[in-house]
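Lab notes, practical 5.
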Amino acid sequence: MLSKVHLIKDINDKWYDIFRPIYSTSFPIHEQRDTAQQIKAFESDRYSLECTIENSTLIAFIAYWEFEEYIYIEHFAVNDKLRGQNYGSLILHEFINKKEKTVLVEIDPLTDDISIKRLRFYERLNFNINEYDHYHPPYNKEYAPHKLVLLSHNRHISKEQYDVFYENMVEIIMK
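Output from the prediction step:
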């Protein structure tokens, strides 16, 4: 075990206030839940927000949704002060190994060096690109759905599995 994993269960958890700035700087505003949406996510028994903590420092977090057939990682980020130290690979590898379901994650379309580097990171952990035309629903009405690339761990998912994932995305995750 790399370090302690702490499950944040609501916005009153002391680690939530430490998580939030890392979250806000790791994702563009159109890919973030606001506080009300975060509270709503915490109400779902399918949603979890795990933080990796080492020496009283929040190293990284994984916000994910667990369904019967798969786990969808909605947000995963390493503390920007600690990036490049292999924490991301170690934490994600541990997370995947303790789960026995297919793990899904989205990344930005491959348009620049950063997005290609992010894909290479996930490929080193045995994630595969699923070639479905995928648009993430907006978190806020003022934004349009945004195109992302859906990756799955150790295998590709079928079109039927993608359709179930997308229906869950619209009806449960983004509701």
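Observations recorded by the TA: The mean pLDDT is 96. Residues 4-173 form a domain with the Aminopeptidase fold (CATH 3.40.630.30).
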